[in-house]
Structure formats: structure tokens, C-alpha cells
Amino acid sequence: MSNSIHSDRQQTVRVGSRRFELSPFHDCWANEHTVMGVYAGRYYSVYNGEDVTDTYWALRRKAVLYDVPERPVEISGPDAVAFLERVFARRIASLKEGRGRYAIACTPAGGVFMDGILFRLAPDRFWYVQPDGALETWLHAHSGGFDLTISDPHSRVLQIQGPTSFDIMHAASGGTIDETMGYFHSGFFEIDGQEVYVSRTGWTGELGFEIYTLGDATDCPRLWHHLLKSGEAHGMMVGSISSMEIRRLEAGILDNGTDFDLFMTPSEAGLDDFVDMDKDDFIGRNALLESRSGTRIYGVKCAKTTPVYHGEIMDEKNSVARITAGAWSPYLECGIGYARFHAAGNWAGRNLQMRTTQDEMVACEIVELPFYDRDKRIPRGLDKTIP
Fold it and tell me: Where are the alpha helices (DSSP H) in the chain?
């Protein structure tokens, strides 16, 4: 079972809805068992009464439909490219229309402020799909001198993830979406007569798609029910974040604000590959040039128990790390999680001790991330082996 801020069903309180956005799909999946969280100012389903292990296996073997809270922000105008090159550590000008790219934004001190996927919808129009955090405020604060517009497209995001997702999207789109749509490709498509934006991406490490609504132009309940109908023949289930959380941990996908924060450099978060230091300039570049930090985030495996959120990792009598997220992996048949070490170092391969909620010490192994499928052959559609 998952054990992180995204799947905690115990530490709950009643919260009013006035300041947070209820999903237009809410009535399609909510029930008396639903436990909700708030992310990016939006409610999402932490748990919906489902058997999480069954839903996990549906994700691995067939497909699962998720209503997720990520929030797209639009950046458009003549200076959009120049502005994005300044804000993000990843090269932007080379991003083709109809493509997405993982990109991180750094603070002036070199910390990771934000991570997400940037899509190029048109030559001077982009959507950045952000996780939690004050992205719009940050963008406005750095937009002086640029001719552009930063706006909210009021888009909600659905994910269909799993090995049968191609078949489901092919059926839902009347055949216009098929296996020729490459990994991180995107575009506008009609689904049941409604235009939506679709990308071949996800937060699970499985083959999958994300579907972006177009504000008030989208009839969300109609879209939801059409997708359900399209998925019937392909074993699709509806899931909460709990099953997605297990799979994203296996896949080594990090969560901004939970696994890393703005006081960690890309190197400490294991994100060096997504920083283009040969760019002329971007926020945080000078600080990163002077930084000599190494990796602080590793995987942790426990044979007998699930790593507990904020649990302590000990090297003999010394506290060396904290758990940022944990889950029981049905596939690996062990507890897994992320350990954020207090100091960078080559921790992989070490056998350490983890403190449990009962204040007992259990053995754990520190490993490189991800736990498997290092080359992302599953989401790329190259490995079609079903466990």
C-alpha cells in the first residue's frame, strides 16, 4: 500500500471548497469512500474506495483512467521562445510544434523551482503543465521586457495509462490516434466530436496518453463517458492517485515539493540530464556553474515493510536520510521508496537501517533510480511484455 502525502487516507480533515477548484469530472467518479487532496489548487482523488492492488495490476496489464490535478499554463506571443529560454534550464527553441519536452526552472541560487512538461502548440504558443507551486506568479515576475502573454487556458487533464491505452485512444478518436503517435508527441484531435489536446505522456512509467480539455468548450461528463465506453472492451478501470503513486515510484518519477525542493540543485535531484549548460543564459546558470553537488535522491528497498513518509534512514547511529515517499510494490514484492540523503554521495549499493513507525530498525538496500526499465522502454512502447 502507498505511504506518502499523495496517498495518505488517515491524516485527513474537512476542507471547504471555495478556494480550491473542484474537477468538472468530479461527479463522474466520486462516491462515499472518496478521500481527496489538494494539488496545484485543485482537488484530486487520493482514494476512491477501490482495491488499490487490483487497480495497480490493471495499470500494468490493461489500462486505468485517472482525473489528475496538474495545471497547464499558456505562454504565447512574439517573445515566447526567448522568454522560455530564459526561464527554463532546458533548450526550448529546438522543440518542434506538436512535441513535448520535460523542462525544469531553477532559482537564481540554482535550486529546482519547478519541473513539468512543455508543449509547443504553435510557433509562438506553448503550454507548460505544472505540478504544485506558484508557477504563474514566477513567470509574471520574470516577464519584464518580453512581448508575451501568460494565461490560464482552464484546461483539465485526464490520463489513460497502461498497455491497452493505444487501443482505447484509437477507438475513442475514431481511428485518428494510433501507434504512429510517438512518445512525447502531441496535437489537437477530435474525440466524440469534441476537440481536445492529446499527448503521449503520463506519470506512471507505462505506455499512456494525457487528454487536455479546452475550457468551457469541452463537455467534460460527455468526454468522460465516451472514454469509459471506448475502454470497456480493453479492460479499462477508473483509478485514484494511490495506484499511480506506486507505479511512479517504481519508474523513478519525482514529485516537485515532495521528493525535491527549491533548495536542491538539479544534480542533487538526479536531473543533470535535463539541464543544458551550453545555453547562453538561463535563471540559475551562474550558480550551477559554481556548484559541485552530487546526487542526494536514491531508491530504497525493504523486504519486509513499506518505507514510511519522513521515516529515517540510519548508517549505524547516524541519521543520513529521510523517506520522501513509499509504497508496497506488487511487482517487485517488496517495499520501495525514495530516500533523500542529507549529503550527496555514492549511496547506491549500501545496506542501511530504516526506522519504522513502531520505532524498530529494519534492513534496507539503497539503489539507483528507477527500480527497473531504466531506458523507458515500456512508455516508449518498445517493451510490450505484460507482467
Answer: 26-29, 52-61, 80-87, 135-141, 165-172, 220-231, 241-250, 285-290
Confidence of residue 12 (pLDDT cuts 50, 70, 90): low
Q: Any idea which residue has 478518436 for its cell?
A: 173
In this structure, are residues 4 and 246 in contact, taking their beta carbons and an 8 Å threshold? Answer: no
Q: Where is average pLDDT lowest: 9-23, 28-42, 200-214, 247-261?
A: 9-23
The shares of helix, strand and coil residues in the chain, as percent rounded to the nearest 5, are: 20, 30, 50
Locate 235 and state its grid cell.
Answer: 479492460
Q: Is this structure's pTM higher than 0.90?
A: yes
DSSP SS3 for 173: coil
The full length of the chain comes to: 387
User: How far, CA to CA in Å, does 127 sit from each of 2, 40, 51, 116?
Assistant: 31, 15, 34, 10
The CA angle 159-163-164, to the nearest 5 degrees, is 80
